[in-house]
Amino acid sequence: MKVALIQLAYGDDETVPARTERVVDLVRAQAGHDLVVLPELWAPGGFSYREWAGRAEALDGPTARALAAAAREAGVTLHGGSIVEHGAPSSPDGRGLWNTSLVFSPTGDLVATYRKIHRFGFGEGEPALMDAGDETVVVDVPVAGGGVVPVGLSTCYDLRFPELYRRLLDRGAEVFVVPAAWPARRVEHWTLLGRARAVEDQCVVLQCNTSGTHAGHEMGGHSQVVDASGKVLAAAGLDEDVLSIEIDTRATTRWREDFPVLSDRRLS
Predict the structure, then answer these.
(1) Where is the CN hydrolase domain (predicted)?
(2) I want to staple 236 with a disulfide (CB 3.0 to 4.6 A). Which of 98, 126, 215, 223 is the partner?
């Protein structure tokens, strides 16, 4: 399975249309990969809370249309990071806004969405402005040569909650994807928790973070690919970067067979 993680850098001086055009070009350049991943909320701004309502869009909005075209032109499965989705509230006290990940097929079809379950902000930010998702999502990603790889979806702050990843594991996930807007001051947690999720669930972890500074927040970068044994296979620094790597997904099966810790689980 050949993957590309696009660690995007941006600041407040770049308009959303300009950033979208730049991202589309970056995705097109990844033709030949099976899966391409973008960071969380790269278009509206991961910490640009004041802009979210004005930059919210439906699942068929301009960002989604641009990403669908890019996936189709590159012939890749594209995890488009996430958008601020707006729609009809799902409860009487709902806001009708979600932090929603979008996954497109190589033909440009929207094949999966995931609304972020764990909202960051301790009562402010996401909890004050957005609704929480309540569904775990695993999507089959086709790979060159035939076959599919089951990929579990999560977003940023979700990484701190291991029970979500147990659910994804129990639904058959072999790979976890974590797009993020994780700040620099806690980046050690970002890298540590990614390895922890890989080790405890014996899954590959693809972590795609944001670089640059926006809304007064310096972003942490350090996107990484971790194998099912916890070994870091590829890692970025603080600057914009594209991590491209071929992952031997059969190694996950071999590791689970050689060290069958999951079979000793007693609680569920």
Answers:
(1) 1-249
(2) 223
The parent domain of residue 227 ranges over 2-261
Residue 118 included in any domain: yes
Question: In the predicted model, is pLDDT for residue 92 greater than 90?
Answer: no
Q: What is the pLDDT of residue 93?
A: 85
Per the listing, tokens 């979806």 go with 153
Q: Is residue 266 part of a domain?
A: no
Residues identified as active-site: 40, 116, 156
CATH code of the domain covering residue 231: 3.60.110.10
Q: Which pTM was predicted?
A: 0.98
Residue 268 forms part of a structural domain: no
Q: How many domains does the chain have?
A: 1
Report pLDDT digits (tens) over 142-166: 999 999 999 999 999 999 999 999 9
pLDDT, the chain, mean: 97
Checking 226-230 for CB contacts under 8 A at 24+ apart, the result is 226/194, 226/195, 226/198, 227/198, 227/251, 227/252, 227/255, 228/174, 228/198, 228/202, 228/203, 228/204, 228/252, 228/255, 228/256, 229/198, 229/199, 229/202, 229/255, 229/259, 230/195, 230/196, 230/198, 230/199
Distance of CA 32 to the CA centre of its chain: 20
